[in-house]
Specification:
Strand content: 5-15%
Bound molecules: ligand F0G
Shape: globular
Number of domains: 2
Distance between the termini: 54 Å
CATH class of the largest domain: Alpha Beta
Oligomer: single chain
Radius of gyration: 21 Å
Structural class: alpha/beta
CATH architecture of the largest domain: 3-Layer(aba) Sandwich
CATH topology of the largest domain: Aspartate Aminotransferase, domain 2
Strand order of the largest sheet: 2-8-7-6-5-3-4
Helix content: 40-55%
Number of helices: 16
Largest sheet: 7 strands, mixed
Number of strands: 16
Length: about 450
Protein backbone atom coordinates (compact mmCIF):
# COMPACT_ATOMS: atom_id res chain seq x y z
CA UNK A 1 0.00 0.00 0.00
CA UNK A 2 1.28 3.48 -0.87
CA UNK A 3 0.40 6.32 1.50
CA UNK A 4 0.62 10.00 0.58
CA UNK A 5 1.91 11.31 3.89
CA UNK A 6 5.68 11.41 3.94
CA UNK A 7 6.88 9.07 6.60
CA UNK A 8 9.95 10.59 8.26
CA UNK A 9 12.01 7.47 9.09
CA UNK A 10 13.12 8.73 12.49
CA UNK A 11 11.51 9.88 15.71
CA UNK A 12 12.52 13.02 17.56
CA UNK A 13 14.50 12.59 20.76
CA UNK A 14 15.64 16.15 21.32
CA UNK A 15 13.90 19.32 20.20
CA UNK A 16 15.01 22.87 19.52
CA UNK A 17 12.36 25.57 19.97
CA UNK A 18 11.71 27.93 17.05
CA UNK A 19 11.12 31.50 18.33
CA UNK A 20 7.94 32.79 16.70
CA UNK A 21 7.90 36.40 15.46
CA UNK A 22 5.24 38.66 13.92
CA UNK A 23 5.39 40.19 10.46
CA UNK A 24 5.87 43.66 12.02
CA UNK A 25 8.88 42.41 14.00
CA UNK A 26 10.36 40.78 10.92
CA UNK A 27 10.00 44.03 8.96
CA UNK A 28 12.28 45.67 11.55
CA UNK A 29 14.74 42.77 11.54
CA UNK A 30 14.94 42.85 7.77
CA UNK A 31 15.65 46.57 7.69
CA UNK A 32 18.38 46.17 10.33
CA UNK A 33 19.90 43.34 8.24
CA UNK A 34 20.03 45.65 5.16
CA UNK A 35 17.64 43.31 3.30
CA UNK A 36 20.25 40.57 3.25
CA UNK A 37 19.10 37.41 5.07
CA UNK A 38 22.73 36.38 5.67
CA UNK A 39 22.82 39.29 8.12
CA UNK A 40 19.76 38.13 10.11
CA UNK A 41 20.09 36.43 13.49
CA UNK A 42 18.96 32.81 13.32
CA UNK A 43 16.46 33.29 16.16
CA UNK A 44 14.69 35.83 13.96
CA UNK A 45 13.98 33.02 11.48
CA UNK A 46 11.08 30.53 11.57
CA UNK A 47 12.06 28.17 8.78
CA UNK A 48 15.69 28.30 7.76
CA UNK A 49 16.14 27.32 4.13
CA UNK A 50 19.31 29.37 3.71
CA UNK A 51 21.36 26.24 3.23
CA UNK A 52 21.38 22.49 3.59
CA UNK A 53 25.06 22.79 4.54
CA UNK A 54 26.06 21.98 8.10
CA UNK A 55 22.42 22.16 9.16
CA UNK A 56 21.59 18.44 9.33
CA UNK A 57 20.17 16.91 12.48
CA UNK A 58 22.60 14.25 13.64
CA UNK A 59 21.44 10.82 14.70
CA UNK A 60 21.77 9.30 18.16
CA UNK A 61 24.43 7.00 16.66
CA UNK A 62 26.45 9.98 15.50
CA UNK A 63 26.26 11.61 18.94
CA UNK A 64 27.23 8.33 20.58
CA UNK A 65 30.23 7.96 18.26
CA UNK A 66 31.28 11.50 19.12
CA UNK A 67 31.39 10.65 22.82
CA UNK A 68 33.72 7.78 22.01
CA UNK A 69 36.04 9.90 19.89
CA UNK A 70 39.80 9.86 20.23
CA UNK A 71 41.26 13.37 20.29
CA UNK A 72 44.93 12.36 19.95
CA UNK A 73 46.97 14.71 17.79
CA UNK A 74 48.45 11.98 15.61
CA UNK A 75 47.14 8.57 14.56
CA UNK A 76 43.82 8.87 16.42
CA UNK A 77 41.38 5.95 16.30
CA UNK A 78 38.77 8.43 15.03
CA UNK A 79 40.99 9.28 12.07
CA UNK A 80 41.15 5.58 11.29
CA UNK A 81 37.36 5.35 11.17
CA UNK A 82 37.10 8.50 9.10
CA UNK A 83 39.75 7.37 6.64
CA UNK A 84 38.10 3.94 6.23
CA UNK A 85 34.68 5.49 5.62
CA UNK A 86 36.03 7.94 3.04
CA UNK A 87 38.12 5.26 1.33
CA UNK A 88 35.09 2.97 1.21
CA UNK A 89 33.25 5.68 -0.73
CA UNK A 90 35.98 7.08 -2.96
CA UNK A 91 38.34 4.12 -3.34
CA UNK A 92 41.19 6.62 -3.45
CA UNK A 93 44.49 5.97 -1.64
CA UNK A 94 45.29 9.49 -0.39
CA UNK A 95 42.79 11.12 1.95
CA UNK A 96 43.24 14.59 3.40
CA UNK A 97 40.79 15.70 6.11
CA UNK A 98 39.75 19.36 5.98
CA UNK A 99 37.49 21.52 8.11
CA UNK A 100 35.02 21.97 5.26
CA UNK A 101 34.64 21.75 1.49
CA UNK A 102 36.23 25.03 0.54
CA UNK A 103 39.40 24.17 2.46
CA UNK A 104 39.75 21.09 0.26
CA UNK A 105 39.05 23.32 -2.73
CA UNK A 106 41.64 25.88 -1.70
CA UNK A 107 44.27 23.20 -1.27
CA UNK A 108 43.53 21.43 -4.54
CA UNK A 109 42.74 24.40 -6.80
CA UNK A 110 45.48 26.48 -5.16
CA UNK A 111 47.93 23.72 -6.14
CA UNK A 112 46.61 23.30 -9.68
CA UNK A 113 45.58 26.81 -10.64
CA UNK A 114 47.53 29.83 -11.85
CA UNK A 115 47.27 32.51 -14.52
CA UNK A 116 46.70 30.95 -17.94
CA UNK A 117 45.02 27.80 -16.58
CA UNK A 118 41.39 26.84 -17.13
CA UNK A 119 38.94 24.80 -15.08
CA UNK A 120 35.86 23.41 -16.80
CA UNK A 121 32.75 22.31 -14.92
CA UNK A 122 29.05 21.55 -15.28
CA UNK A 123 28.75 24.65 -13.05
CA UNK A 124 31.29 25.91 -10.54
CA UNK A 125 29.77 26.49 -7.11
CA UNK A 126 30.54 29.98 -5.76
CA UNK A 127 33.37 28.90 -3.41
CA UNK A 128 34.79 26.70 -6.17
CA UNK A 129 34.83 29.58 -8.61
CA UNK A 130 36.23 31.96 -5.99
CA UNK A 131 39.11 29.60 -5.11
CA UNK A 132 39.93 29.09 -8.80
CA UNK A 133 39.80 32.78 -9.65
CA UNK A 134 41.84 33.58 -6.54
CA UNK A 135 44.61 31.34 -7.95
CA UNK A 136 44.62 33.44 -11.14
CA UNK A 137 42.99 30.70 -13.26
CA UNK A 138 39.70 30.91 -15.16
CA UNK A 139 36.56 28.91 -14.30
CA UNK A 140 34.38 28.10 -17.30
CA UNK A 141 30.87 26.65 -16.89
CA UNK A 142 29.72 24.22 -19.58
CA UNK A 143 26.35 22.77 -18.52
CA UNK A 144 24.25 20.95 -21.14
CA UNK A 145 21.70 22.98 -23.10
CA UNK A 146 18.81 21.17 -21.31
CA UNK A 147 19.94 22.79 -18.05
CA UNK A 148 18.44 26.07 -19.29
CA UNK A 149 15.05 24.49 -19.92
CA UNK A 150 13.32 24.74 -16.56
CA UNK A 151 10.14 23.01 -17.62
CA UNK A 152 11.00 19.71 -19.32
CA UNK A 153 11.21 16.49 -17.33
CA UNK A 154 14.71 15.65 -18.62
CA UNK A 155 16.16 13.83 -15.61
CA UNK A 156 19.85 14.80 -15.81
CA UNK A 157 19.97 18.53 -16.31
CA UNK A 158 23.12 18.61 -14.18
CA UNK A 159 25.16 16.99 -16.97
CA UNK A 160 28.23 18.62 -18.44
CA UNK A 161 28.15 19.45 -22.16
CA UNK A 162 30.54 16.87 -23.54
CA UNK A 163 30.57 18.35 -27.07
CA UNK A 164 31.58 21.69 -25.62
CA UNK A 165 34.29 19.95 -23.63
CA UNK A 166 35.62 18.34 -26.82
CA UNK A 167 35.68 21.77 -28.42
CA UNK A 168 37.33 23.62 -25.51
CA UNK A 169 40.15 21.18 -24.74
CA UNK A 170 41.99 21.82 -28.04
CA UNK A 171 41.00 25.50 -27.95
CA UNK A 172 42.66 26.10 -24.55
CA UNK A 173 45.27 23.36 -25.03
CA UNK A 174 44.94 20.20 -22.92
CA UNK A 175 48.06 21.20 -20.95
CA UNK A 176 46.28 24.42 -19.85
CA UNK A 177 43.16 22.70 -18.61
CA UNK A 178 44.01 22.23 -14.93
CA UNK A 179 40.96 20.05 -14.22
CA UNK A 180 37.43 19.18 -15.22
CA UNK A 181 35.10 19.34 -12.22
CA UNK A 182 31.81 17.50 -12.10
CA UNK A 183 29.63 18.82 -9.28
CA UNK A 184 27.11 16.20 -8.20
CA UNK A 185 24.39 17.25 -7.86
CA UNK A 186 24.84 20.51 -9.72
CA UNK A 187 24.05 22.94 -6.91
CA UNK A 188 24.32 26.27 -8.76
CA UNK A 189 22.54 24.81 -11.80
CA UNK A 190 19.34 24.10 -9.91
CA UNK A 191 20.42 21.10 -7.83
CA UNK A 192 20.04 18.83 -10.84
CA UNK A 193 21.69 15.41 -10.95
CA UNK A 194 24.46 14.17 -13.23
CA UNK A 195 24.07 10.81 -14.96
CA UNK A 196 26.60 8.00 -14.77
CA UNK A 197 26.71 8.04 -18.57
CA UNK A 198 27.83 11.67 -18.48
CA UNK A 199 30.43 11.00 -15.77
CA UNK A 200 31.78 8.11 -17.86
CA UNK A 201 32.11 10.31 -20.96
CA UNK A 202 33.84 13.07 -18.98
CA UNK A 203 36.18 10.51 -17.44
CA UNK A 204 37.03 9.06 -20.85
CA UNK A 205 37.80 12.46 -22.35
CA UNK A 206 39.91 13.49 -19.37
CA UNK A 207 41.92 10.27 -19.55
CA UNK A 208 42.44 10.63 -23.31
CA UNK A 209 43.76 14.16 -22.82
CA UNK A 210 45.64 13.56 -19.57
CA UNK A 211 43.45 16.04 -17.67
CA UNK A 212 42.60 15.66 -13.99
CA UNK A 213 38.95 14.71 -13.40
CA UNK A 214 37.64 16.03 -10.07
CA UNK A 215 34.34 15.07 -8.52
CA UNK A 216 32.71 17.58 -6.17
CA UNK A 217 30.89 14.88 -4.22
CA UNK A 218 29.11 16.84 -1.53
CA UNK A 219 25.67 15.58 -2.60
CA UNK A 220 26.72 12.30 -4.15
CA UNK A 221 24.17 10.18 -2.24
CA UNK A 222 21.29 12.32 -3.49
CA UNK A 223 22.79 12.13 -6.99
CA UNK A 224 22.99 8.32 -6.67
CA UNK A 225 19.27 8.22 -5.92
CA UNK A 226 18.48 9.86 -9.28
CA UNK A 227 20.84 7.52 -11.14
CA UNK A 228 19.10 4.56 -9.48
CA UNK A 229 15.74 5.97 -10.51
CA UNK A 230 16.47 7.02 -14.08
CA UNK A 231 19.34 4.92 -15.46
CA UNK A 232 17.97 1.38 -15.88
CA UNK A 233 21.43 -0.17 -15.62
CA UNK A 234 21.49 0.86 -11.95
CA UNK A 235 18.02 0.09 -10.64
CA UNK A 236 19.15 -3.00 -8.80
CA UNK A 237 22.33 -1.39 -7.41
CA UNK A 238 22.59 -0.06 -3.88
CA UNK A 239 22.93 3.73 -3.55
CA UNK A 240 26.39 3.25 -2.09
CA UNK A 241 27.50 1.07 -5.02
CA UNK A 242 26.34 3.77 -7.45
CA UNK A 243 28.28 6.46 -5.58
CA UNK A 244 31.35 4.21 -5.43
CA UNK A 245 31.16 3.64 -9.16
CA UNK A 246 30.98 7.36 -9.83
CA UNK A 247 34.04 7.97 -7.62
CA UNK A 248 35.90 5.20 -9.44
CA UNK A 249 35.72 7.31 -12.61
CA UNK A 250 37.45 10.31 -11.03
CA UNK A 251 41.07 11.15 -10.19
CA UNK A 252 40.22 13.31 -7.22
CA UNK A 253 37.28 14.02 -5.00
CA UNK A 254 36.47 17.08 -2.90
CA UNK A 255 33.63 16.81 -0.45
CA UNK A 256 31.99 19.18 1.93
CA UNK A 257 30.83 16.64 4.54
CA UNK A 258 28.36 19.28 5.72
CA UNK A 259 25.90 18.00 3.12
CA UNK A 260 25.61 14.27 2.46
CA UNK A 261 27.81 13.18 5.37
CA UNK A 262 25.03 14.53 7.64
CA UNK A 263 27.34 16.54 9.90
CA UNK A 264 27.65 20.12 11.03
CA UNK A 265 31.31 20.51 10.09
CA UNK A 266 33.85 18.61 8.01
CA UNK A 267 35.22 17.81 4.60
CA UNK A 268 37.96 16.04 2.73
CA UNK A 269 40.07 15.85 -0.36
CA UNK A 270 40.94 12.45 -1.77
CA UNK A 271 43.40 11.76 -4.55
CA UNK A 272 44.89 8.96 -6.60
CA UNK A 273 48.13 10.64 -7.63
CA UNK A 274 51.00 10.51 -5.12
CA UNK A 275 52.88 13.58 -6.34
CA UNK A 276 49.73 15.74 -6.21
CA UNK A 277 48.83 14.24 -2.82
CA UNK A 278 52.30 15.13 -1.51
CA UNK A 279 52.07 18.75 -2.57
CA UNK A 280 48.51 19.06 -1.25
CA UNK A 281 49.59 17.46 2.05
CA UNK A 282 52.22 20.19 2.47
CA UNK A 283 49.51 22.83 2.17
CA UNK A 284 47.23 20.82 4.45
CA UNK A 285 49.80 20.77 7.24
CA UNK A 286 50.63 24.46 6.85
CA UNK A 287 47.05 25.70 6.75
CA UNK A 288 44.61 23.11 8.13
CA UNK A 289 46.38 20.73 10.50
CA UNK A 290 48.33 17.54 10.73
CA UNK A 291 47.52 14.75 8.25
CA UNK A 292 45.43 12.67 10.65
CA UNK A 293 42.99 15.41 11.61
CA UNK A 294 43.24 18.27 9.09
CA UNK A 295 40.89 20.90 10.42
CA UNK A 296 38.79 18.42 12.38
CA UNK A 297 38.50 17.20 15.94
CA UNK A 298 38.24 13.46 16.59
CA UNK A 299 34.52 13.80 17.30
CA UNK A 300 33.92 15.54 13.97
CA UNK A 301 35.63 12.65 12.17
CA UNK A 302 33.50 10.09 14.05
CA UNK A 303 30.31 11.90 13.05
CA UNK A 304 31.38 11.92 9.38
CA UNK A 305 32.20 8.20 9.46
CA UNK A 306 28.71 7.35 10.79
CA UNK A 307 26.98 9.92 8.55
CA UNK A 308 28.54 8.45 5.42
CA UNK A 309 26.85 5.14 6.30
CA UNK A 310 23.47 6.58 7.25
CA UNK A 311 23.08 8.72 4.15
CA UNK A 312 22.97 5.68 1.87
CA UNK A 313 20.14 4.03 3.84
CA UNK A 314 17.25 3.59 1.34
CA UNK A 315 14.65 4.65 3.95
CA UNK A 316 16.54 7.90 4.51
CA UNK A 317 17.19 8.69 0.84
CA UNK A 318 13.60 7.88 -0.14
CA UNK A 319 12.28 10.22 2.54
CA UNK A 320 14.81 12.89 1.62
CA UNK A 321 14.07 13.03 -2.09
CA UNK A 322 10.34 12.57 -1.60
CA UNK A 323 10.10 15.50 0.79
CA UNK A 324 12.02 17.86 -1.51
CA UNK A 325 9.80 16.80 -4.41
CA UNK A 326 6.69 17.30 -2.24
CA UNK A 327 7.56 20.95 -1.66
CA UNK A 328 8.47 21.53 -5.31
CA UNK A 329 5.26 20.01 -6.61
CA UNK A 330 3.08 21.91 -4.15
CA UNK A 331 4.68 25.21 -5.18
CA UNK A 332 4.32 24.40 -8.85
CA UNK A 333 0.62 23.68 -8.28
CA UNK A 334 0.29 27.21 -6.85
CA UNK A 335 1.79 28.67 -10.02
CA UNK A 336 5.24 29.36 -8.57
CA UNK A 337 7.81 29.02 -11.40
CA UNK A 338 9.95 26.23 -9.93
CA UNK A 339 12.75 24.51 -11.82
CA UNK A 340 11.68 21.11 -13.01
CA UNK A 341 12.33 18.32 -12.30
CA UNK A 342 12.86 18.91 -8.59
CA UNK A 343 16.42 18.15 -7.47
CA UNK A 344 17.63 16.53 -4.27
CA UNK A 345 18.49 19.17 -1.71
CA UNK A 346 16.52 22.21 -2.71
CA UNK A 347 13.69 23.74 -4.66
CA UNK A 348 14.73 26.53 -7.03
CA UNK A 349 12.43 29.30 -8.17
CA UNK A 350 12.85 31.46 -11.26
CA UNK A 351 12.52 34.85 -9.62
CA UNK A 352 12.48 36.80 -12.88
CA UNK A 353 9.39 34.84 -13.93
CA UNK A 354 7.77 35.27 -10.56
CA UNK A 355 8.41 39.04 -10.59
CA UNK A 356 8.64 39.97 -14.29
CA UNK A 357 8.05 43.63 -13.44
CA UNK A 358 11.34 43.93 -11.52
CA UNK A 359 14.34 44.58 -13.82
CA UNK A 360 17.37 42.28 -13.35
CA UNK A 361 19.44 45.31 -12.18
CA UNK A 362 16.98 45.55 -9.29
CA UNK A 363 17.49 41.92 -8.30
CA UNK A 364 14.07 40.16 -8.43
CA UNK A 365 15.55 37.19 -6.54
CA UNK A 366 16.58 39.34 -3.60
CA UNK A 367 13.09 40.80 -3.59
CA UNK A 368 11.52 37.33 -3.33
CA UNK A 369 13.97 36.35 -0.60
CA UNK A 370 12.94 39.45 1.39
CA UNK A 371 9.22 38.81 0.89
CA UNK A 372 9.50 35.19 2.02
CA UNK A 373 11.12 36.38 5.19
CA UNK A 374 8.69 39.21 5.75
CA UNK A 375 5.52 37.20 5.23
CA UNK A 376 6.54 33.85 6.69
CA UNK A 377 9.88 34.17 8.48
CA UNK A 378 11.37 31.86 5.82
CA UNK A 379 15.04 32.42 5.11
CA UNK A 380 16.19 31.53 1.58
CA UNK A 381 18.99 32.61 -0.71
CA UNK A 382 19.27 34.37 -4.04
CA UNK A 383 21.28 32.42 -6.62
CA UNK A 384 21.36 34.92 -9.44
CA UNK A 385 22.87 38.29 -10.18
CA UNK A 386 23.49 39.12 -6.52
CA UNK A 387 25.57 35.95 -6.15
CA UNK A 388 27.15 35.76 -9.62
CA UNK A 389 26.73 39.21 -11.21
CA UNK A 390 29.84 41.04 -12.40
CA UNK A 391 30.42 44.57 -13.69
CA UNK A 392 31.79 45.67 -17.05
CA UNK A 393 34.42 48.47 -17.33
CA UNK A 394 31.68 51.07 -17.20
CA UNK A 395 30.24 49.61 -14.03
CA UNK A 396 27.15 48.16 -15.73
CA UNK A 397 25.88 44.88 -14.30
CA UNK A 398 26.71 41.74 -16.29
CA UNK A 399 23.86 39.55 -15.05
CA UNK A 400 24.12 35.92 -14.03
CA UNK A 401 22.88 33.34 -16.54
CA UNK A 402 19.94 32.53 -14.25
CA UNK A 403 17.91 34.44 -11.67
CA UNK A 404 17.02 31.87 -9.05
CA UNK A 405 15.98 31.68 -5.44
CA UNK A 406 16.94 28.53 -3.59
CA UNK A 407 14.97 26.91 -0.80
CA UNK A 408 17.59 24.51 0.56
CA UNK A 409 16.18 21.92 2.90
CA UNK A 410 18.23 20.88 5.93
CA UNK A 411 18.45 17.11 6.32
CA UNK A 412 16.23 15.42 8.95
CA UNK A 413 15.26 18.81 10.46
CA UNK A 414 11.79 19.81 9.31
CA UNK A 415 8.61 17.74 9.18
CA UNK A 416 5.84 17.66 6.63
CA UNK A 417 3.84 20.22 8.65
CA UNK A 418 6.70 22.72 8.45
CA UNK A 419 6.72 22.22 4.70
CA UNK A 420 2.94 22.66 4.51
CA UNK A 421 3.38 25.97 6.34
CA UNK A 422 5.91 27.08 3.71
CA UNK A 423 3.42 26.23 0.97
CA UNK A 424 0.80 28.41 2.69
CA UNK A 425 3.24 31.32 2.88
CA UNK A 426 3.83 31.03 -0.85
CA UNK A 427 0.10 31.08 -1.50
CA UNK A 428 0.03 34.45 0.27
CA UNK A 429 3.05 35.77 -1.64
CA UNK A 430 1.58 34.81 -4.99
CA UNK A 431 -1.54 36.88 -4.20
CA UNK A 432 0.46 40.10 -3.79
CA UNK A 433 3.27 39.48 -6.25
CA UNK A 434 2.60 42.55 -8.40
CA UNK A 435 3.45 44.76 -5.39
CA UNK A 436 6.96 43.30 -4.92
CA UNK A 437 9.74 45.90 -5.09
CA UNK A 438 13.29 45.80 -6.42
CA UNK A 439 16.45 46.61 -4.47
CA UNK A 440 19.73 48.41 -4.97
CA UNK A 441 23.11 47.48 -3.52
CA UNK A 442 24.54 50.12 -1.20
CA UNK A 443 27.64 48.17 -0.09
CA UNK A 444 29.50 45.15 -1.51
CA UNK A 445 32.89 43.43 -1.02
CA UNK A 446 35.03 42.18 -3.96
CA UNK A 447 34.64 38.42 -3.47
CA UNK A 448 31.48 36.46 -2.63
CA UNK A 449 29.49 39.65 -2.29
CA UNK A 450 26.17 38.00 -1.48
CA UNK A 451 27.33 37.11 2.05
CA UNK A 452 27.80 40.68 3.25
CA UNK A 453 26.25 42.99 0.65
CA UNK A 454 23.81 45.60 1.93
CA UNK A 455 20.66 46.62 0.08
CA UNK A 456 18.04 49.34 0.06
CA UNK A 457 14.47 48.75 -1.13
CA UNK A 458 13.33 50.86 -4.08
CA UNK A 459 9.96 52.51 -4.00
N1 LIG B 1 30.84 22.57 -3.49
C1 LIG B 1 29.51 22.64 -3.54
C2 LIG B 1 28.76 22.04 -4.69
C3 LIG B 1 28.81 23.27 -2.50
O1 LIG B 1 27.48 23.31 -2.56
C4 LIG B 1 29.53 23.83 -1.43
C5 LIG B 1 28.85 24.52 -0.35
C6 LIG B 1 30.92 23.73 -1.43
C7 LIG B 1 31.54 23.09 -2.48
C8 LIG B 1 31.77 24.32 -0.33
O2 LIG B 1 31.64 23.60 0.84
O3 LIG B 1 30.64 25.18 2.48
O4 LIG B 1 31.83 23.13 3.22
O5 LIG B 1 33.08 25.02 2.29
N2 LIG B 1 27.65 24.85 -0.41
C9 LIG B 1 26.88 25.48 0.62
C10 LIG B 1 25.52 25.80 0.08
C11 LIG B 1 27.55 26.62 1.31
O6 LIG B 1 24.77 26.51 0.77
O7 LIG B 1 25.17 25.33 -1.00
P1 LIG B 1 31.80 24.27 2.29
Amino acid sequence: MKFNTIFEPFRIKSVEPIPVSTQEEREEYLKAAFYNPFLLQSDQVLIDFLTDSGTSAMSSNQWAAMMNADESYAGARSWDRFEKAVRNLTGMPYILPTHQGRAAERILYGSLGSKGKYFLSNTHFDTTRANIEFSGAKAVDIPIAESKDFISEYPFKGNLDVDKLKELIPKYGAENVAAVILTVTNNSGGGQPVSMANAREVSRLCKANNILFVLDACRIAENAYFIWKHEPEFNSHSFLAIAQEMCSLADACVMSAKKDALVNMGGFLSLRDKALADSCTQLLIITEGYTTYGGLSGRDMEAVAVGLEEVFDPAYLNYRIRSTTYLGKALRALGVPVIYPIGGHAVYIESNKMYPHIPIEQYPGQSLVCNLYRVGGIRSVEVGSVMFGKYDERGKLIPSAMELVRLAIPRRVYTQSHIDYVVEVFAEIIKTKSLARGLKIIYEPTFLRHFTARFEELS
